[in-house]
Amino acid sequence: MALRRDTICALASGPPPSAISVLRVSGPHVADIIAARCSLQTLKPRHATLVDLLDEKGTLIDSGLAVFMPGPASYTGEDTLEISLHGGRVITELALRSIMSAGARLAEPGEFTRRAFEAGKLDLTRAEAVADLIDAESEAQHQQALKQMDGALERLYAGWRDDLTTCLALLEASIDFPDEEDAPDRVDAPVRETLLRIDQALKDALVQGNITERIRDGFKIAILGKPNAGKSTLLNQISKREAAIVTDIPGTTRDVVEVRLTIGGYLVWLSDTAGLRETTDIVEAEGVRRAMKAADEADLRLWVYDAREDFDMSVVQPGDIVVANKSDLVAPKDVSRETLTIVAKTGEGVANLEADIISHISKMTQNLSAPMITRARHRQGIERALEYVSAARDHLKLQSGSEFVAEDVRQASRELGMLTGHIDPDTVLGAVFSSFCIGK
Amino acid sequence: MHDSFDFDVIVVGGGHAGCEAASAAARTGARTALITHKVETIGEMSCNPAIGGLGKGHLVREIDALDGLMARASDRAGIQFRMLNRSKGPAVWGPRAQIDRQLYRSAMQGEILNHENLTVIADGVEDLMVKNDTAQGVIGESGTAYSAKAVVITTGTFLKGIIHRGAERIPAGRVGEKPAIGLAERLYALNLPIGRLKTGTPARLNGETIDWGKLEMQPADEVPIPFSYLTDQIEVPQIACGITHTNAAAHAIVAENLKRSAVYSGAIAGRGPRYCPAIEDKIYRFPEKTRHQIFLEPEGLDDKTVYPNGISTSLPREIQDAFIREIEGLESVEIFEYGYAIEYDYVDPRALDVGLQVKTMPGLFLAGQINGTTGYEEAGAQGLVAGLNAARFGRGKPHASFDRAEAYIGVLIDDLITRGVTEPYRMFTSRAEYRLSLRSDNADQRLTERGIELGLVGASRAEMFHVKQNALTDGRNKLQTLAMTPNAAQKHGWKVNQDGQRRTAWEFLAYPTISMTDISKAFPEVACLDQRTKDQLEIEAMYAGYIERQKDDVAALRREESLALPGDLDYGQVGGLTNEVRAKLEHVRPATLGQASRIEGITPGALTALLAYVRRRPSRTRANG
Ligand SMILES: Cc1cc2nc3c(=O)[nH]c(=O)nc-3n(C[C@H](O)[C@H](O)[C@H](O)COP(=O)(O)OP(=O)(O)OC[C@H]3O[C@@H](n4cnc5c(N)ncnc54)[C@H](O)[C@@H]3O)c2cc1C
Ligand SMILES: Nc1nc2c(ncn2[C@@H]2O[C@H](COP(=O)(O)OP(=O)(O)O)[C@@H](O)[C@H]2O)c(=O)[nH]1
Ligand SMILES: [Mg+2]
To answer: A129-215+375-421: which CATH architecture?
Structure first.
């Protein structure tokens, strides 16, 4: 009995108290559990039924809507029960205890989705998307996860693999059927063309993937400027908390302070840095070094200067934002119309600044039709596939033999296959025979 | 040690699988009997007399590396040697030869009839002797009982074989041979999974009635390269084959009479090979093609029979007459024998283990076309494995096998027992994921050492092999120690990066633009190596980078292969498997996780579940116990 796959249960909704709580049970014992703990012995599959949930002594815990989904047509592929109860702490506690005493154990994190993957219900990218969807904090993350769950990534990667399979079919036909006129003997041109196209697509995906990964993991925004310009004050103002220490002593901020927040539906990491200046203080010098690094890695750089001083525009790169702070201390007429002006201390003008930040991020994401890469795992797989595709193209150029080209194409296809978890060695021969009339 | 058995191993059937099986068992010292209908048909080529080709030539070299017979017999019977794919790299060169039927038969019979430890018996086998659910011999048509510790069945297409030609139906294995009813019934009674396949053959033509003058001719290679590592030189005279094509008129006749073809009339249920379609298939499936190539291959030096390769058919005789005579060069050809399709039962090879033993009947081994393959080479390779393991079984030893990273033989057996077949199975180089290391030039280096350990390889080959190995090791050491600066390399006209890095001769060889001839000129110490060694090392260096790269893959393969799945594993207990996946696993009963991963339709998720279950099992069992 211990070897048998067990039945798992868990609270599927957020922690109580809440209006309702949904409990989920999955595994071979679901039907037994229903019979043992519900007021009705059996439930009509895929119908919402009002039932009483009882404890092991038969005492009523709560009544709620129960839906029984027999496997394999369920999320996990197993028999599944979902029951909605009133969302009280005691109710959920008692309900779980009752279900467990009838033959279930508490699920580990992600176990329902893992079972779905094991049952072949989801490919890897979709399984990842389920996790992303649940974890989404921003609308952009949510949108992206939805598309991925719908199979956008799976289709994209599978499409590339299909193209590679076509190449392989050409190459293999020319290798395995050398004596036959019907086999394509000049395969270089079509293979070269397809590989060029895939090479470009993979490169585009890597560039675009930077942004999709950002949507998932957060955009990095660095606040930069001289000491005392008001960078820390601005960080506190935008994040609406006292994350960074503010004093009027220049050089107060020494390490990089990061705050995670959402702005306009995007997840961002806002970092406050040490003021940029020449210094002999070793700790501050290290802070300046870190500030430079943060500036380098940032997706968006926000330069802050004291409106009473001049600002050296030579440090600014295209795409950066420049704001004049402390505009309360200068006469309005002295402030240039071009630059954004704010009073970090009071929050005046900060809404405009946020709007500007959002429009910068939107510009980065505007060409994003569907996600192409959403995690490091995808990036690495695609990078490796790209390496193989380049190697294959080099072999074509050098005429070093179609067996080399085929080997690299096969590896590229395998890398992409690993992303979705689909690998089938017979596809190539299948493609060969459906395209060419070969055989003596 | 004497026992009451007549033999250690009995091999039934003297075809290509049977000859290699009998010889392999006998080479390891087992007292072996080969029982076949007629001694005169031992080594008969039932169809196209040609050996080798892509993938197939690799198998022949591997059989030879293990001291089998096929390569040597072919070298004594080949009348048109050609190395296919010369324009591509050596990993995909395919040695092939057109064979003189008679010469081949006599070469093979010469080997078999004079083989140490091997007795040849002319008898039809009517039944199997089974004791304690173990195969322990056979009973002949003559009524004689022959007992043995293990039995290898290599009877080809004899299971419910039916020949189709138009509306004609002839029950037969091959033309002129009767199917063995008793043995077939015994095999059916074992309740092994059985499938049905078909294959076909073209008409045989009288070469004297072909107008050769009109035709393009394809000569043999100028210097024929033998199959066997033991053959120095081919002594058989070499001939040319003719090339002609079908045409619109011939296509029209075939198309009009499609319904009269046994294949299209619905009479045949078995699946035919996609890579060897009948002419009616080609015309039906690829109507846009206006012509198809035909090779006119003489069947022997003193034989006027010609095999028209490319027009296998099951159309009625008069239609064959009509369409063939539309073809250029064949306008007044005489047909000796008409083409036909043959349909036969085969045993689903997923019922076999890695030694080709029937999982449910210890001591019973199957090899050759009976397992759903087609081709002499595929049959021979299986025969070798089955014969070897039948002999080992008799001695109580575990199976010996070859893995996919080691040999095409390994690819063949693994494909069969893991994926089964849906069409007659033929080897292709594209089936081998480690193609760049499984080359026809290095079969001996991959396998002969194993063959010596297994007792398959005779003393003379073993000695030759060691001499060759030493020469290669010496040569390799030289190439890997001799070095040169890029500056010096430039003086030889080699284009290399001028980075000041000294490179070894071996590294220079990996450049596609630098050949062994160039290296020999630059390094006199290399020039004095013998030519065979140089050729071999040049190929090795060319693929060295890729083979290095594959090492991780091979290690991963072997790791998965080392994760054994118990033969009695209850897949119902492994959670998370869909019914479909579970049924597939139960059908194949893979021996390792690696094998499970190669079963068609097994998802990565299912493998994760299986792995988790197997990992969990021992500790849980202990906890329970
Ligand atoms: C019509 C046809 C066309 C083919 N075309 C080609 C081709 O073009 N190229 C190619 O490579 N391959 C071709 N093949 C396949 C090739 O011939 C076979 O795959 C190969 O010969 C199989 O070898 P085997 O040893 O399994 O069986 P076979 O070579 O068929 O040998 C079987 C042997 O067993 C003997 N036997 C059978 N039953 C008994 C019994 N009960 N007792 C004793 N002896 C028995 C038979 O007499 C025979 O000697 C063709 C096959 C057929 C039938
Ligand atoms: N008057 C005024 N003072 C400000 C404003 N922003 C920051 N300050 C003050 O300037 C000083 C330096 O601010 P801080 O945020 O620590 O500067 P940083 O070194 O750039 O991080 C503090 O005393 C702040 O209170 C502003 O908009 N107006
Ligand atoms: Mg500060």
So the answer is: Up-down Bundle (1.20)
